[in-house]
Write a structure and sequence with these properties.
Length: about 550
């Protein structure tokens, strides 16, 4: 019963272990997957935003560097225009027709041209259509007042005209022109001073590419959306409506914007330089930015997935080591105990809750085992008693008597302790059975055994040899003492009231064990004596 219960428990626990293992694995994997998904989404969106921010910052920096370069480039030119047009130059422009004034102005042109190397041409035109310039003679019929640079300065009066880029017909170089009106003492326009400067360095700066984002480029447009300078030489003079419609009109505004240029999405940064009438734009294809972002996101996510899987494996391993393994070892331990392999060594419990549970289970199991051992001992004692007891009379049976006899014989052989053996048989017992019935016969035998047991010493052993035959083994008893015991037995039987007043007598033989005896020979001898007592008329003792 105990074994069967334990086996059932063990099977149940084994199933629990594998289920627990599966549950732990499922929980850690699910948690890891949820964590991976959450972290991946967060990191991907973070990296994407960061990537776009980075690209915007690259665009902004590039745009700023171009704008700064333009500012730095244009400032001395505008200052030169301002200076030549003002009274600070020491030239009285109302007297432009006078040779002295012309020479003074031409020498100023020369000084400025030598001081500012970017100046390509510096010249002035006057209301009479004349042109004042070093080393050049205007063709016949030339009229300054109809030239675009003259008209632009008149239009911007009293300010410096916006920078007008144009390609020189002769050198094919890009030039930018700044002009300002020349005034007399009454602030009346008498002419225009104009400086044309080469734009090579600006064009070069606009054309500088970026290694990370190869599609980045810069271009310049005017405040009406007309492209002025562009790396694609076919585009200047054309309108760029797609981006222009997104630009704010605020003076000197700058910022980022995204727009669709045909089927291409573009990200741009712009900076309005309103004193020049220019808008500097730096833009890039959005696909060009996304590519490195996607690359970064992919490699980062790959690292996260590998890291998370490794962590999951490590967690599973640690949990298995600290949770499943102790439970499995406990299961093994319980099995060992129930199978009685207690000598296999003490199990070292882990120092945690599982350890405490394990200890409790082990104690419980050990307690059950002790209980089982007590039950077994009781059963063994009972079995031993049953196997040594006569069922009817509850005195020793023949097997027990043989054991007692063997013990006495060996004790005699070792220490010469004397002992005697008495054997008797109920007289005419068949008659008792036949007359009063078998059950009465049984009662007689029981009462006979009780009577004799009460008569003899506790150290003597009474046993049923078989049927109505009995044996008494008396340790430390010589023949004389044995005869005395036999007589006491006879007397007790004689005095006892058996059922139905039946008169019971016995025939008895006795011997003291001597050196000449063996166990077999003394038994044969006593049996013969008992037979002789029967022969001689029963109800007597033969010694
Ligand atoms: N009631 C009962 N009778 C038993 C038991 N064991 C043996 N007997 C009977 O005891 C009787 C023994 O008979 P016998 O061997 O002929 O001996 P007896 O009648 O006692 O005659 P003698 O021994 O010659 O005096 C038999 O009838 C057995 O059946 C028992 O346990 N109970």
């Amino acid at each position: 019963m105990f074994e069967a219960n334990n086996r059932a428990y063990l099977t149940f626990y084994m199933k629990q272990f594998s289920k627990l293992h599966r549950q732990i694995f499922a929980i850690t994997t699910t948690l890891a997957l949820i964590t991976i998904v959450i972290i991946s989404i967060s990191i991907a969106s973070l990296l994407y935003t960061q990537g776009i921010d980075n690209a915007e910052s690259v665009l902004r920096n590039k745009n700023r560097s171009v704008t700064t370069l333009i500012d730095g480039y244009v400032a001395p030119l505008r200052k030169a225009v301002e200076y030549t047009g003002s009274s600070a130059s020491g030239v009285d422009h109302s007297r432009f027709r006078e040779q002295e004034t012309k020479e003074k102005f031409l020498s100023l042109f020369e000084v400025l041209q030598n001081t500012i190397p970017n100046i390509h041409y510096i010249f002035s035109g006057y209301e009479d259509g004349s042109l004042l310039i070093n080393n050049y003679t205007a063709p016949a019929g030339f009229n300054s007042t109809v030239r675009p640079w003259y008209l632009a300065a008149i239009k911007s009066n009293p300010l410096i005209s916006e920078g007008v880029p144009y390609q020189d017909i002769n050198s094919k170089k890009w030039l930018v022109s700044f002009g300002k009106t020349l005034l007399d003492a009454d602030n009346k326009i008498v002419g225009v001073i104009s400086i044309d400067a080469g734009m090579d360095s600006i064009v070069k700066a606009l054309a500088i590419r970026d290694e990370k984002y190869p599609t980045i480029y810069n271009f310049v447009m005017d405040t009406e959306g007309k492209i002025l300078i562009h790396p694609d030489e076919t585009l200047p003079d054309t309108l760029h409506q797609q981006i222009f419609s997104h630009l704010p009109e605020k003076v000197n505004a700058s910022g980022s914007l995204a727009y669709n240029d045909g089927d291409q999405k573009k990200l741009a940064h712009f900076d309005r330089i309103d004193e020049l009438g220019w808008i500097v734009v730096t833009e890039v294809n959005l696909a060009d930015i996304r590519q490195p972002i996607v690359k970064t996101i992919t490699s980062t996510l790959l690292m996260i997935v590998i890291g998370s899987l490794f962590t999951t494996w490590l967690m599973s391993h640690i949990l298995s080591r600290h949770l499943i393994l102790p439970l499995k070892r406990l299961q093994q331990r319980v099995q060992e105990i129930t199978e009685g392999k207690d000598e296999l060594g003490k199990y070292v419990f882990p120092n945690n809750e599982i350890g405490k549970i394990s200890e409790a289970i082990e104690k419980l199991t050990e307690k059950a085992l002790i209980q089982k051992n007590i039950e077994l001992k009781d059963k063994n004692t009972l079995l031993s008693t049953i196997s040594h007891t006569d069922q009817l009379t509850s005195i020793a049976n023949r097997r027990k008597m043989m054991e007692v006899l063997h013990t006495e014989v060996s004790s005699y052989e070792q220490n010469q302790h004397p002992f005697s053996v008495l054997m008797f048989d109920v007289d005419h017992f068949k008659h008792v059975n036949d007359t009063f019935g078998h059950e009465v016969g049984d009662q007689v035998l029981i009462r006979l055994a009780q009577t004799i047991k009460a008569t003899i010493h506790k150290t003597d052993t009474l046993g049923r040899w078989g049927g109505e035959e009995f044996v008494i083994v008396c340790p430390n008893t010589d023949k004389t003492m044995a005869l005395n015991i036999a007589e006491k037995v006879f007397s007790a039987i004689h005095l006892h009231n058996f059922p139905l007043q039946i008169n019971i007598t016995i025939s008895l033989g006795l011997s003291e064990f001597t050196n000449n005896h063996s166990l077999e020979s003394i038994l044969v001898e006593i049996d013969q004596k008992m037979y002789r007592a029967k022969q001689l008329g029963r109800n007597q003792i033969q010694t």
